[in-house]
UniProtKB/TrEMBL annotation:
<dbReference type="InterPro" id="IPR036322">
    <property type="entry name" value="WD40_repeat_dom_sf"/>
</dbReference>
<dbReference type="InterPro" id="IPR001680">
    <property type="entry name" value="WD40_rpt"/>
</dbReference>
<dbReference type="InterPro" id="IPR019775">
    <property type="entry name" value="WD40_repeat_CS"/>
</dbReference>
<dbReference type="GO" id="GO:0071011">
    <property type="term" value="C:precatalytic spliceosome"/>
</dbReference>
<feature type="repeat" description="WD">
    <location>
        <begin position="199"/>
        <end position="240"/>
    </location>
</feature>
<feature type="repeat" description="WD">
    <location>
        <begin position="325"/>
        <end position="366"/>
    </location>
</feature>
<dbReference type="InterPro" id="IPR015943">
    <property type="entry name" value="WD40/YVTN_repeat-like_dom_sf"/>
</dbReference>
<dbReference type="GO" id="GO:0071013">
    <property type="term" value="C:catalytic step 2 spliceosome"/>
</dbReference>
<comment type="function">
    <text>Involved in pre-mRNA splicing as component of the spliceosome. Component of the PRP19-CDC5L complex that forms an integral part of the spliceosome and is required for activating pre-mRNA splicing. As a component of the minor spliceosome, involved in the splicing of U12-type introns in pre-mRNAs.</text>
</comment>
<feature type="repeat" description="WD">
    <location>
        <begin position="241"/>
        <end position="282"/>
    </location>
</feature>
<keyword id="KW-0853">WD repeat</keyword>
<dbReference type="GO" id="GO:0000974">
    <property type="term" value="C:Prp19 complex"/>
</dbReference>
<dbReference type="InterPro" id="IPR045241">
    <property type="entry name" value="Prp46/PLRG1-like"/>
</dbReference>
<dbReference type="InterPro" id="IPR020472">
    <property type="entry name" value="WD40_PAC1"/>
</dbReference>
<keyword id="KW-0677">Repeat</keyword>
<dbReference type="GO" id="GO:0000398">
    <property type="term" value="P:mRNA splicing, via spliceosome"/>
</dbReference>
<feature type="repeat" description="WD">
    <location>
        <begin position="283"/>
        <end position="324"/>
    </location>
</feature>
C-alpha cells in the first residue's frame, strides 16, 4: 500500500530535495590562488612575449612607478637581452602648451598629451634599429659581412641561391633559401619480369591465391567452387578440395598450424586440416558474401571481411567471434593483419580505409583520401608503411596514423590486387588484365604487362583478381579471369644497360589527396 503523507510533509521534502540539489554548485569556479596565478602569468609572459620584451619602454612611466620592476605585477626580472644596456628610445608626449590663447603657461595650466601604451609600442616597432643596437644584438656574422670581408660584392652570389635579410626588433638574421624545385629522386633499377608458366585446371575465374610458408606449394580458390593445391616448382595439381557452394573468394595458409582457411560468397568461413584434407571448423556470423581473410602473424586470430559492411575477428580454436568491426558503410573488400599497431587494416567500397584497434575492436583512424572503392591493401614487409589501390590511384601511407606519403598515378583501371616484395617492387593487378610494376620508394612505374588470354577465352576474360610473391620473392603468381594461374620471374639476362630506366628528373607535382 502507498503510505499517505500530509501536504505539509510533501512540500518540505520537495524543498529539502531542491536544497540538496543546489547546495553544491559544481559550476562555480574555484577560488583563484594568487601565487599560482602569478607563476602562470609569468611563464605565459615569457613564452608569448619574450621576443618583444626588449622593446623601448616609457621612461616617464618607469620614473613615476619607481623603477622597472614595480610596474610588473608578476615579479618579472628584466629581460636578459636588456641587461647592461641603456634603452636608447624615449617615447614622450607633446611639449607642454597652454589650454588657450592668452593664458600664461604655468604648472597649473599646462596641457601635455601622453601617448597610450599601445601607441608607444607601435611607434617603437616602427623606429629604425640603430647601429649600436644591431652590433650589440648580433649573434653571428651575416652573409653580407662574409662577402664584404672576402672582397666580393654582395650581388655576386652563387646561382640558384637567394639571401634574405631580416631586421625585426633590432635582430639581424640571414637565411639561405634554395630556389631549386624538388625533383623525383632516381629510382632503383629493377630487372623486368617475364611470363614463364601458365597453369590451367580451374573451370571458372581464379579469384584468390596464397603460397604456403614452406614455399613447396600454393593454393587457389575459384568461381568453380573448388580449392586447388599446386606444386610450386612444377605447376602440377596435387589436390582439389570441395565444400564451398559458391565462389571461393579468399584462401590463406597458417604458418602456426597445419591449417588452411577459406571464405566464399556462400557466407562460409572454413578451416581445413591439411593432414586429413577435411573441414574441421566453420566460423558462422557473416550475413553476406565473405570477400577476404587474413591471419594474425603472432596470435591465433583470424580476421574476415564481408559484403555486410563488417569485418569479424575470430578465435581460431574456439570459433568464437571476438569482435565485429563495424563502421564501414559499404562492402569491405580487403583486410590485412600485422603484429604492430594498428594490427588490422581494412579497405572498403565506401572509399575509406580504416585502421583498427584489435583489443578494443574500434576504429583508430579513418582515411578518406580515395574517391573510389578501395579493393586492395598491401603492407610493406620491411618498412612501417602500406599501400592501397583504387581506380583513382594507388596511395602510400605511413603507420601508425596513416600519414599520406605519395600517389602512384597511371594505372587507370579497377585495381583488384596489390603485392610488394622486400626489394621494393610493388605490383598492381587490374580488372582489365593489365599489371603495372612500380619502384616503391620513388613511385616510378618501370614495367607494364598485359599477358594474352588463354586460347579459347574471350577478350573480356582478361582480368587479374589476385597476385602474390612466393616466399623467396623470385616468383610472382597471378590469379586471372581466363581460368589460369600465370607465373612470372625476373629476367636474369637483363642488365641496367639493356633495360635502362627511362627516367627524367621531372619536377614533382604530387597531389596531397
Amino acid at each position: 500500500e502507498v503510505q499517505k503523507h500530509s501536504v505539509h510533509t510533501l512540500v518540505f521534502r520537495s524543498l529539502k530535495r531542491t536544497h540538496d540539489m543546489f547546495v553544491a554548485d559544481n559550476a562555480k569556479p574555484i577560488p583563484l590562488d594568487e601565487e599560482s596565478h602569478k607563476v602562470k602569468m609569468a611563464v605565459k609572459l615569457r613564452t608569448e612575449y619574450g621576443s618583444v620584451l626588449h622593446m623601448p619602454t616609457l621612461k616617464e612611466n618607469l620614473r613615476e612607478k619607481g623603477g622597472p620592476n614595480t610596474g610588473d605585477p608578476y615579479g618579472h626580472k628584466p629581460y636578459s637581452g636588456n641587461q647592461g644596456q641603456e634603452l636608447e628610445y624615449l617615447i614622450t608626449g607633446t611639449h607642454p602648451y597652454p589650454p588657450g590663447p592668452g593664458v600664461a603657461l604655468t604648472a597649473d595650466t599646462k596641457v601635455q598629451r601622453m601617448p597610450s601604451e599601445s601607441a608607444a609600442q607601435s611607434l617603437a616597432v616602427a623606429l629604425p634599429a640603430s647601429q649600436s643596437r644591431l652590433d650589440a644584438n648580433r649573434t653571428a656574422a651575416g652573409v653580407g659581412d662574409i662577402y664584404r670581408h672576402a672582397g666580393i660584392s654582395e650581388r655576386s652570389q652563387p646561382p640558384g641561391m637567394s639571401v634574405a635579410m631580416v631586421e625585426a626588433g633590432g635582430n639581424k638574421n640571414s637565411a639561405l633559401m634554395a630556389k631549386k624545385a624538388p625533383t623525383m629522386p632516381k629510382p632503383q633499377w629493377h630487372p623486368p619480369w617475364k611470363l614463364y608458366r601458365v597453369i590451367s585446371g580451374h573451370l571458372g575465374w581464379v579469384r584468390c591465391i596464397a603460397v604456403e610458408p614452406g614455399n613447396q606449394w600454393f593454393v587457389t580458390g575459384s568461381a568453380d567452387r573448388t580449392i586447388k593445391i599446386w606444386d610450386l616448382a612444377s605447376g602440377k595439381l596435387k589436390l582439389s578440395l570441395t565444400g564451398h557452394i559458391s565462389t571461393v573468394r579468399g584462401v590463406i595458409v597458417s604458418a602456426r598450424s597445419p591449417y588452411l582457411f577459406s571464405c566464399g560468397e556462400d557466407k562460409q568461413v572454413k578451416c581445413w586440416d591439411l593432414e586429413y584434407n577435411k573441414v574441421i571448423r566453420h566460423y558462422h556470423g557473416h550475413l553476406s558474401a565473405v570477400y577476404g581473410l587474413d591471419l594474425h602473424p603472432t596470435i591465433d586470430v583470424l580476421v574476415t571481411c564481408s559484403r555486410d559492411s563488417t569485418a569479424r575477428i575470430w578465435d581460431v580454436r574456439t570459433k568464437a567471434s571476438v569482435h565485429t568491426l563495424s563502421g564501414h558503410t559499404n562492402a569491405v573488400a580487403t583486410v590485412k593483419c600485422q603484429a604492430a599497431e594498428p594490427q588490422i587494416i581494412t579497405g572498403s567500397h565506401d572509399t575509406t580505409i580504416r585502421l583498427w584497434d584489435l583489443v578494443a575492436g574500434k576504429t583508430r583512424v579513418t582515411l578518406t583520401n580515395h574517391k573510389k572503392s578501395v579493393r586492395a591493401v598491401v603492407l610493406h614487409p620491411r618498412h612501417y608503411t602500406f599501400a592501397s589501390g583504387s581506380p583513382d590511384n594507388i596511395k602510400q601511407w605511413k603507420f601508425p596514423d596513416g600519414n599520406f606519403i605519395q600517389n602512384l598515378s597511371g594505372h587507370n583501371a579497377i585495381i583488384n590486387t596489390l603485392a610488394v616484395n622486400s626489394d621494393g617492387v610493388l605490383v598492381s593487378g587490374a580488372d582489365n588484365g593489365t599489371m603495372h610494376l612500380w619502384d616503391w620508394r620513388t613511385g616510378y612505374n618501370f614495367q607494364r604487362v598485359h599477358a594474352a588470354v588463354q586460347p579459347g577465352s574471350l577478350d573480356s576474360e582478361s582480368g587479374i583478381f589476385a597476385c602474390v610473391f612466393d616466399q623467396s620473392e623470385s616468383r610472382l603468381l597471378t590469379a586471372e579471369a581466363d581460368k589460369t594461374i600465370k607465373v612470372y620471374k625476373e629476367d636474369d639476362t637483363a642488365t641496367e644497360e639493356t633495360h635502362p630506366v627511362s627516367w627524367k628528373p621531372e619536377i614533382i607535382k604530387r597531389k596531397r589527396f
